[in-house]
Automatic annotation (TrEMBL):
Cross-referenced Gene3D superfamilies: DNA ligase/mRNA capping enzyme (3.30.470.30), Nucleic acid-binding proteins (2.40.50.140)
Designated name of the protein: mRNA guanylyltransferase
GO biological process, one term: 7-methylguanosine mRNA capping
Organism: Hondaea fermentalgiana
Record carries keyword DNA damage: no
Chain ranges of the mRNA capping enzyme C-terminal domain: 278-405
InterPro entries: mRNA_cap_enzyme_adenylation, mRNA_cap_enzyme_C, mRNA_Capping_Enz/RNA_Phosphat, NA-bd_OB-fold
GO MF term list: ATP binding; GTP binding; mRNA guanylyltransferase activity
PANTHER family the UniProt entry points to: MRNA-CAPPING ENZYME
Keywords assigned: GTP-binding, mRNA capping, mRNA processing, Nucleotide-binding, Nucleotidyltransferase, Nucleus, Transferase
Catalyzed reaction equations: a 5'-end diphospho-ribonucleoside in mRNA + GTP + H(+) = a 5'-end (5'-triphosphoguanosine)-ribonucleoside in mRNA + diphosphate
Every mRNA capping enzyme adenylation domain range: 48-273
Length: 422
């Protein structure tokens, strides 16, 4: 049985206080634009992968790529930036930062909000923060289940399983700038080398013996050659005991080695998910109808996609009473972003045709339909219709684990035979 320590570090879904001060937000957005090389000051500068389709398989075999497991965490950029002016509307969490000084570490979410992380400031310390100023890293914040450290007096040779605790880990898979040097124009290998040498090494050198519980562990994500996709799928993710990963996983990410970092959507990063996890983020909205007593009653039942940043009606969805009540309690009838998967054996929901009709007149028919997976609090807009169509194409393309292993295995065999001839 998994046990968890009561002491938990950063929560990936709610890691801290969002910056509200307008002057500070403008400063941080301006810094992100400078460090990322993005032409857009008010747009999240992180790269966005596209779904892996059959048409990409040839390029995936012929071009240089790295593959890694797709962690089921929350995507953030990590910005380290020293503020050089007085902030009047200071985040309350700054009161205990570096003896009352201004915070330096921010997680940047996909809404382009900046979340102050004072515990990371305090852990890194003033000297290291000055050294790392002007850094913008790309990664994912996850909860890792790790064994509790041994306490003084405990038998470290004991064979009984250690209780587990939740540790926050920021898995760095790319970088845009390191210590005020833009590296987004380098290839992936050089960008990762810069992170290892200029960030990870400095942190470990400053803290060779970190405390048992830290707010967030900074580490590079493990990357592999595409020829090793079999190993990634069957050893890294699944493993002989049902899984070697200390966190949840929902697929694979392929990244071109020889390409620079690109802000926004890019075909240089391909995401693959097994069919049952291939998902879309929709906006769910409510409709008014009548309950059994004839009273007006709202129910979440419609999904919106987006086109050019504007929401539009896409389809309906069946949410059970527990899911609806959770959304109603949290959003009070306001739209919400939810992640959905296409289930062949779910419920096609047909709401009442008029709001004066009772909900009991709605029709539920077994069949293929979108199924609620979870709320996406880190997003404020539904996926664009092009993304929805891409996910559907990915689902219907039927790329399975076996497909990847066979295709990239042939690539590996070609590399081996080519090397033997040289």
């Amino acid at each position: 049985m998994v046990q968890h320590a009561k002491r938990v570090a950063l929560n990936p879904d709610n890691p801290g206080e969002v910056v509200r001060d307008d002057q500070l937000k403008h400063e941080l957005k301006s810094v992100c634009q400078r460090l990322s090389g993005s032409p857009h000051m008010h747009r999240f500068p992180g790269s966005q992968p596209i779904s892996l389709l059959r048409e990409h398989m040839g390029e995936l075999s012929d071009k240089p790529w790295l593959v890694c497991e797709k962690s089921d965490g929350v995507r953030y950029l990590l910005l380290i930036h020293r503020i050089n002016f007085v902030v009047h509307d200071r985040p309350s969490c700054w009161d205990n930062v570096l003896k009352g000084g201004v915070g330096s570490c921010y997680l940047v979410n996909r809404k382009f909000e900046f979340i102050a992380i004072p515990t990371l400031d305090n852990f890194l310390g003033e000297r290291l923060l000055r050294s790392l100023d002007g850094t913008l890293l790309d990664g994912e914040l996850v909860y890792d289940e790790v064994p509790l450290p041994h306490m003084d007096g405990e038998d470290e040779e004991a064979t009984a399983p250690r209780p587990l605790r939740l540790q926050s880990t920021f898995l760095i898979f790319d970088a845009l700038s390191v210590r005020n040097t833009f590296i987004g124009d380098l290839d992936l290998f050089d960008r990762l080398r810069a992170v290892q040498g200029e960030i990870i090494f400095r942190v470990r050198n400053e803290h060779p013996m970190p405390p048992p519980v830290v707010p967030c562990v900074l580490t590079l994500k493990q990357m592999f050659a595409t020829a090793d996709v079999d190993f990634v799928l069957n050893e890294v993710i699944k493993g002989p005991q049902g899984g070697n990963l200390p966190h949840e996983n929902d697929g694979l990410i392929f990244t071109r080695i020889d390409k620079p970092y690109k802000c926004g959507k890019t075909s240089d990063i391909l995401k693959w998910k097994p069919r049952h996890l291939n998902s879309v983020d929709f906006q769910v909205i409510g409709m008014w109808g009548r309950n059994d007593r004839g009273e007006a009653s709202m129910r979440y039942c419609f999904l919106n996609a987006a086109k050019h940043g504007v929401s539009f009606g896409y389809t309906s969805i069946w949410l059970d009473d527990e899911q609806h009540e959770m959304l109603e309690a949290k959003y009070e009838g306001r739209p919400a972003i939810i992640e959905c998967v296409l289930d062949d054996n779910w419920i096609q929901f047909h709401p009442p045709q008029d709001q004066s009709m009772p909900w009991s007149s709605a029709k539920k028919v077994p069949g293929q339909a979108w199924k609620f997976l979870r709320v996406r609090e880190d997003k404020h807009m539904a996926n664009d219709i092009k993304t929805v169509d891409g996910v559907l194409k990915s689902i219907h393309s039927g790329i399975t684990e076996s497909t990847l292993i066979q295709a990239l295995g042939r690539s590996r065999d070609a590399h081996v035979s080519g090397s033997s001839r040289s």
